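User: Run a structure prediction on this.
Assistant: Running it now.
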Amino acid sequence: MEISEESALWVQENIMVQWVHADPSFAYTFGLWNAHLPELIIVGMPFRQAGMTLNLIAAAMHANGPFRVGDLDTDIFTLPTKFGSVSTEEIEEKMTQTIAHARDGRGDVLQVLWPDRRGIFPDEPGYSVEFASQKVLA
């Protein structure tokens, strides 16, 4: 999957990432709904990696169209990335800036999920407790 310089610049100018130090920590985007794309949230990833991850996925969606719940991407990162659903309660509780900055109403929200060392995602049986901070928000 190719991410153009244009898409990278678009993300830089239009999308913000809010990181929240909590237990577990999480980061989310705001500005994607205004471009008719799903907003993103990632849980349990350190600050720098979370921001870079969300920005790269936003640029990929700008260039190639939105991901959907259940999609599995193997092109952006060295590890596969899965996109999960997020409950309304989690959106309301965690994504306050996203809601505040939505000009045209709400859209979809995707949770960015990454696998453990064995390739098992947190929404699958057998997921390693080593990565327990990656809470599923469905």
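The CA atoms of residues 38 and 108 lie 5 Å apart.
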